[in-house]
């Protein structure tokens, strides 16, 4: 077939595709097709990377282009990487220096859940709470932040604050184009109706990293509360210059683990003004770090 014939065939194919779309939302269809094209592009141009996690991606934060993907659109449990969205909403609707009084929401929901050690009656700022959320991955901090944001946006106490905050999370996910994500809580404890994808989490993290306050919080190796009554250490081993998983330029973002989700990690690193975001889902305790290092090495070499 000559060039003219190929162009005609392409036009006919495009017309048929539009006819098939019919009453579907055209913008959503085109966006999904672009995502799939990016994933195919990354897979065909990039050398194979041995990734142990069930799903993974590494994305150029400036362009949004996926440089490598493995089952990046597969719905999976995100564990505590959920807290990226919680922090994003807190920064969108809250005030960093506003004081929050911890309520009964700080009581544990599960015997082995991660906590920031918050106690009922404790007064802390939103900045303190977000540091307790993102560094030690406190589920107590997640609930404190969620209740605070719902009460702030709705003008007073709300009995079903968890459901109201989940609704805010899902609305924000939809706004960002995270079409395969649904949240049921602010912390990521297992719920069959709480899921996301590597691609969507990269999208959410990319949005969050646009906020200077978020970047400052997740890049900190440790944090002491403004009142001096709490100290939080960061679980992100990529930031530890003395550790075996140190990553040059690492500046975030969030670890995660549940028995259903496995080990998860959303990471970010910046070199020479170029920011990359990687996501690994359902990996092992060690492989989640080595997977991330491989993804970042590939991303910076591409």
UniProtKB/TrEMBL annotation:
Write the signal peptide boundaries.
1-19
- Where does the Peptidase S11 D-alanyl-D-alanine carboxypeptidase A N-terminal domain start and stop, copy by copy? 47-283
**Example GO biological process term?**
cell wall organization
> Matching Pfam families, A to Z?
Peptidase_S11
Among InterPro entries, the record links this protein to:
Beta-lactam/transpept-like, Peptidase_S11, Peptidase_S11_N
Q: What SUPFAM superfamilies is this protein classified in?
A: beta-lactamase/transpeptidase-like
Any idea which residues are catalytic in this one? 80 (acyl-ester intermediate), 83 (proton acceptor), 137
Residues binding substrate are 254
Keyword annotations for this protein, in alphabetical order, are: Carboxypeptidase, Cell shape, Cell wall biogenesis/degradation, Hydrolase, Peptidoglycan synthesis, Protease, Signal
Q: Which GO terms describe its molecular function?
A: serine-type D-Ala-D-Ala carboxypeptidase activity
Does the record carry Cell wall biogenesis/degradation as a key word?
A: yes
Which family is annotated?
Belongs to the peptidase S11 family.
Name the UniProt record assigns to this protein = D-alanyl-D-alanine carboxypeptidase
Can you name the source organism?
Paenibacillus antri
The opening ranks of the lineage are: Bacteria, Bacillati, Bacillota, Bacilli, Bacillales
